[in-house]
Amino acid sequence: FEEKIAIDIANYKNQKIKINNLDKFIFNCVLENMNLKGVEPNGITYLSLPQLSSSFSILITYNIIFNDIASKLLKLTGNNISEEREFINFNKNEGILLVSHNIDLLQHVWNTTFSGEYLREYVPTYIVKAKQFKVFNFNNNSKNINFQDDGTLPWIGFYRAHKKELIGKFDKKVKYIIIDFIPTYHRKRAKQIIEWAKNKAEHVIVILPSNDPYLSYLASADAFKLPINQSTQKIINSIITYEPDYDDIHSWGTNNSLDVLKSFDISFNLNEYFSIDKNLLKILKKYEIEIELCRKSNGLYPEKIQKIDRLKVQMMNLIVPLKDYETAKRMSKQVNIFDAYKKIKQIPSLDEEEKSIEVLLSHHFYKVFEELYDLLYELSNSLRSELLLSVLKKYSSIKIIILIIDKFERNLFVNKLNKDNTNVIEILTYKEFHELQMKSQYVKADTIILTTPFPTKYFSAFNFFNVNIEFISILNDKTRYFKHVDNIYNNNNDIRIFVKSLNRIGVKHLDDIKTEKQISINVLNNYKFVIEGKAELLETKDINISIFDDVKLLELLKSNDNYELTTSDYISSLSNINYAYTTKAQLIEIEDLDENKKWIFIPVDDHLKIQRGNKDVIESLKVSNFELEDLWIRVNHDMKSDLFNEILKLASNTPLMKWINHGVGIWNEILESVWEKFNKGQRYKKNVYEDILKAINLNGGNIKNYVTIVNWFTHENIVRDQVNLRALIIISGKEEFMDSMRIVLSSVSKLRSMHIQLGRTISKLINSYSKQLLEYNVLEEWIRIGEDIVIPTEDIVSMISFSKITYINVEGIADIPNELLYKNLNKNFAIEVLNKYSFEEEEHEF
Asked: Which residue intervals define the domain DISARM protein DrmE C-terminal in the entry (predicted)?
């Protein structure tokens, strides 16, 4: 097999698809189990692999197909097949159904050839859509002129299982089903999909991400399961040898996981406080007492108590000072912790018991929450940030990655770093670290710092090698960190299951394998947390207080994304306008496709994606340029996200998008450096932009109007010519990017053309809109962006929302509290807000 791979924006090469010894070992184990004599129909094989092996499902699918083809060719050529050698045997018209939400698998198939023939034309390949098998052709019939299926060769069907209802009856004979759970989309209903597949196929192969605690329950005690992970690698090493091929970065198999499995040159340091200020510990202990008193007779807390407890977890686990976090949230038009607390307190009691708790007990709980909030608000550092900054002082001039829970804290923490540190530190959320691995990308560093225990939801991303790991541990975090390391590197249950499964297929004498030296954690507990200079400190070793709960924290951050401030109690809580927390905005009325009308405040300087009339283009316009009947096209459930960027994320794992993102990433680094250099706290941003314009022109650039600079920094436009880019690099101080100018210019040029093409494509969708739009069978299945990127139409349709502009309040401009921007408001409330914050319009600068 050879796959066409982009080596830069304009050039491609054909790269041989390789398999290593571990791939072969897994294939043979799976085939041996499938061919075991006496195995009952509807059998099942479980594989768990590091999620860096995100394309393994397509590799094992073709291995099974070609195993069958090999046996047929041997028979046709008269070769005798050894009775001891078992082959897969498909009957006429039978095939394999691959259930996966990984659309990159289709890109692999589309771009891959076998002996000069496209793989999709050699093996009959289908997409299962609307309960039917449709020829896989990316809407391009001209490239499938050789396609034929007379039933001789086994077929492959790709099924994304989008809809809640799984297909009841197929119009083809399904022999095997392979289920890919490495993408997260189907993990929540994994058990349902497996039970469905067992009733549809002769044998089912389930591919799981290694070390995912939420999926470990799926395989029963007597199931055949191959856990390929850091714990079982010692057994694998005793059977086969395997080494990573560092040139094979586009591997379909396990190549990108091999270093993780070997876990070489890895060390763990746990950093914790020896003692903490007595006042803080006293309030935390008091909090635990008061919340326990609010527990209902069924053991649960009232809803409002649960929600407030999540806020406590959030503010205790910040990596920045609480005051900085709260202020930044308000400045960026978002609800902060105390805003949410005041709103949650108004949730009504559900029953008589909750009313009793509210009257007799809750006020004590509220009081201690507010005491804790006030204490944390006055601190110059949070518990985690002080420890984190202390750890960073140990390192200089090495690459460091910091893993955090809340992406909002990223820029706030960067501001606390000195200039020398910012060049070597990259901050990722656990979610981002997780998602990169599912795209077979591992971010390398000399040191990785975990600011909290690894969230259970993303635990399958706990994959490290050739690195020093620093744990930031507060109070009872230590226990979780030790359990995590033990579960990854010394999971005796996985070892037992692995040995049992290998014995089943005839691989014996594995019980005598010597256990390798276990990975240890070095504990550093010489830190102290002091609130005041002469405060009394208490040692932490005997204190049993937990402050971290990843489930509560992730649930809170998820709910904050859609947190709505409604009703006039918000207005009554603000007696004065604080212009630091307001934005000049205009009131408009919009109507959705079901003719529901809402009123929304739109910031006057924001650009929105607008389609006008029946034009086949989407424009980026300010609210002052809106007209009645315009269509506002936006990301579903998030009015502020950029539509085109969100769509292109669906193709982020294609080689071309990786190159584009690399170039755009350099461009963003240049902008950040320029902003840090020129933003000196000026009252108006316009002054900053004008200073940048002068500096660019003094260094050989040619910018006529500061609006060009504005559009760069608001991401409405990107640099177009070399002289301005060169000048920007000079004034940024990032001279090392001079060699990257071609990459940046070609990347942004390609991205610009993609945005234009996307706008036309989405406009075409909207113009043909009907009540049946969401019935996927009436749409073309794929949207092509150039020759290289293809995205399922249904993914785009499910992502976007349309609203018609039905009224523009020309005089409805005011400095509106940031929390009320882009919120769906009823008319009376919107008018009330407008009346409160209206002002005589004055000229304001940026």
From this structure: 601-768
